[in-house]
Amino acid sequence: MQSVDPAPPRAEAQFVPEKMTEQTSLPESDQPQVTNLTQVDVDSVKAELVRMHQSSAQEIEAEEVELHISVALDVKSGRVNTHESGLGLVHAGEVNMQNSGAGAVRAENVSINGYAGAVVAGSVEMGNTYAGVVAGAKVRGERIESIVLLSPKVEGSVTTVMDTRGALIAGLVGGLFAGLMLLLGRMLFGRKS
C-alpha cells in the first residue's frame, strides 16, 4: 500500500530527473484535486479547485477558482470567485467578483462589484460597477454605469451612454448616413462612360 501525503501539492507538482529520456505523465487519478498558489507566477494550472493569493497565471482550467489579490489571463471554470483581482477572459457557469476587474466575462450568472470591459450572461447583478458593454437576459444592480446595455429586463439605477433602443437607433442612423455618403460619393466621383 502507498502512503498519501496530506500536504497540498506545490506549483512544481512533478519532478523529472534530467537523465530521463522517456517522457512520462501522471495518470488521471494522480492529477491534483486542489492547487493552492501563494506568491508565484505560473503558465498553466489544471485542477478541480484552484486557490490563488498574490499570484498570477496565464491559463486556469478548474471546476472552481478562488482568487485573492491575483491576476489570471484566461480562466475556464464552473465557478469563479475573486476579491481584489484582475481577469482577462473568463468562461464560467457562475462568476462572483468583488472589487475586481475583468476584460471579458461570459457566464450564466454574473455578480460584479468593480470593473468589466464586456459582460455577456443570462443573469447579471452589478453593484457599483463600471462596464463597457453589458448584455444579459436580466440585468439588476444598485448603480450601473455602462457604455452599452442590452437587456430586455433591467432593474435598478442604470446610467448608460447607449441602451437597447439607443443602439438600434444609432445603428439605423449610422447605416442611413453611410448609405447616403456612398451614394453621394458615387454621384460626384463615379466613372462616366
Structural class call reads mainly beta
Name the shape in a single word.
Answer: elongated
Q: Using the CA coordinates, give the radius of gyration.
A: 24 Å
Report the portion of residues in β strands: over 45%
* Helix coverage percent: 10-25%
Give helix and strand order, one letter per element, not per position.
Answer: EEEEEEEH
How many beta-strand runs?
7
Strand order of the largest sheet: 1-2-3-4-5-6-7
Look at the structure and give the mean pLDDT: 81
Tell me the quaternary state: single chain
Largest β sheet strand count, sense and barrel closure? 7 strands, parallel
How many helical stretches? 1
Distance between the termini: 92 Å
Give the count of structural domains: 2
Low-confidence stretches: 1-27
Give a written overview of the molecule.
By secondary structure, this protein is mainly beta. It has two domains: 28-162, no CATH class; 166-193. It is built from one helix and seven strands, in the order E-E-E-E-E-E-E-H. A seven-stranded parallel beta sheet has the order 1-2-3-4-5-6-7. The longest helix has 26 residues, at 164-189. The model is unreliable at 1-27 (pLDDT under 50).
Provide keyphrases for this structure.
single chain; mainly beta; 7 strands
Can you give me a brief rundown of this structure?
This protein has 193 residues and is mainly beta.
Secondary structure layout:
Layout: E1 34-38, E2 41-53, E3 56-68, E4 71-83, E5 86-126, E6 129-150, E7 153-162, H1 164-189
Parallel strand pairs: 1-2, 2-3, 3-4, 4-5, 5-6, 6-7
